Amino acid sequence: MPPPGVRPLQARRRGPARQLQARVEHRAARLVCVLAKGVVVVPSPSLLSGPWLSATRASALQRVGNRPIVWHVLSALQEAGVTDVAIVSPPDAAQEIAACVHSEGSPGIEVHSIAVGQPDNGASPWEAVAEWVGDAPSILHRADGLLGQQLLPYAKLREEESLGALVLVAARQSDAPPHLELVSSTGNGGTSAQPTPASPATVGVCMLAPGALADVPGQVSAQGLSLGTLATQLPRSGARTGVRTARKWRHFDGDVRDLLDLNRTVLEALEGETMDNADSNHFEGQTAIHPTATVRSSVIVGPVIVGAGAVIVDSYIGPHTSIAERVRIEGSELERSIVLAEADVLHVGGRLVGSVVGRRARVFRDFSVPRALRLHVGDGAEVALC
């Protein structure tokens, strides 16, 4: 779903019979999730480190495709047929997350807020979640990551295989040591011979059958709000559990490369029209350009998104690039990059590739003398000179 005000993106053309078949299959699949409740789990900003590229340290609020990551998570749940979602946040993030969701608007989905404190006297933060979910099936999703594919096939798989829980684990398990083991439960209460090792940080999504969450909270007391710690207890609580590898999963906890991967994931989901070549512009591929943006004498090769009030003049914008609102780009070339709100990129001598330009930042070529590099670089920033 494009941001408000962005020109609607038109789907690729299909024959009438194929269109009808696709709609029927999609609606049938959505019935699997239509009664499910969504739970979006927000990690604590105080537990994370790394460069923070917008006005917040919350990883879920970093922006890709001109939206916070958590907004794209809500959109993915809505696309799966979920209409009722609770965002579960620790105290140091709850107010900021709620304010962001309110200002951005939820993508056609009803959003509730659950703030949970640190475990106290054995109390589990999952008790409030289990009470809210009740007897409904549920989809639990990290707030700072994206699956890179639709949730519906996995929801359908859990139901077809009569699983009490289906846990989706990121493929890149070498990023961290395996602090836990997810054990696939058999139907007779035992476990399979081959456990699946995984780091808690790599557990991205848990899909639970009705009642699967009810017996878990007491077993994860004092463990904090983590899908990883929750997933370890699902088989032990008696839920018949399956584990699947999600090879396209990415989440952001401070590594700029992951943020750029998430941006690419979002932009590749755009289905749209190629803009008409006018005003000495040349457009290729899928683009979403806000009606108030100005593009002159430039080349834009999608997928690209350009926000409200942005100005692009005499420039090249390459694939997988997000240009936020009120950005000004003149005489420059960018590719596979993110430019956040109100930043300027002016007459840069080379092409910016795989870069993130922060809010209100200025990247420009200075023609005054003496000729030298003059940098104002904040904490945790990285500058590569070629």
Brief summary:
The protein has 386 residues and is an alpha/beta fold.
Task: List its salient traits.
alpha/beta; Spore Coat Polysaccharide Biosynthesis Protein SpsA, Chain A; UDP N-Acetylglucosamine Acyltransferase, domain 1; 2 domains; 7-stranded mixed β-sheet; 5-stranded parallel β-sheet; 7 helices; disordered N terminus
Class from secondary-structure proportions: alpha/beta
In which order are the strands of the major sheet placed?
Answer: 5-4-1-6-11-8-12
- Number of distinct helices: 7
Counted up, domains total 2
> What is the radius of gyration?
22 Å
Mean of the pLDDT scores? 78
**How much of the residues is beta strand, in percent?**
15-25%
General shape? elongated
Unreliable spans? 1-15, 173-201
Per CATH, the class of the largest domain reads Alpha Beta
Helix share of residues?
10-25%
- The CATH architecture name of the largest domain reads Alpha-Beta Complex
Number of strands: 28
CATH superfamily of the largest domain: Spore Coat Polysaccharide Biosynthesis Protein SpsA, Chain A
Distance between the termini: 37 Å
CATH topology of the largest domain: Spore Coat Polysaccharide Biosynthesis Protein SpsA, Chain A
SSE inventory with pairings:
Elements: H1 16-33, E1 37-41, E2 63-64, E3 67-68, H2 69-79, E4 84-89, H3 91-104, E5 110-115, H4 126-133, E6 138-142, E7 145-146, H5 152-160, E8 165-170, E9 180-182, E10 196-198, E11 203-208, H6 227-233, E12 241-246, E13 250-251, H7 256-268, E14 282-284, E15 287-289, E16 294-296, E17 299-301, E18 304-306, E19 311-313, E20 316-317, E21 321-323, E22 328-330, E23 333-335, E24 338-339, E25 344-346, E26 351-353, E27 356-357, E28 362-364
Parallel strand pairs: 1-4, 1-6, 4-5, 8-12, 14-17, 15-18, 16-19, 17-20, 18-21, 19-22, 20-23, 21-24, 22-25, 23-26, 24-27, 25-28
Antiparallel strand pairs: 2-3, 6-11, 7-13, 8-11, 9-10
Helix pairs in contact: 1-5
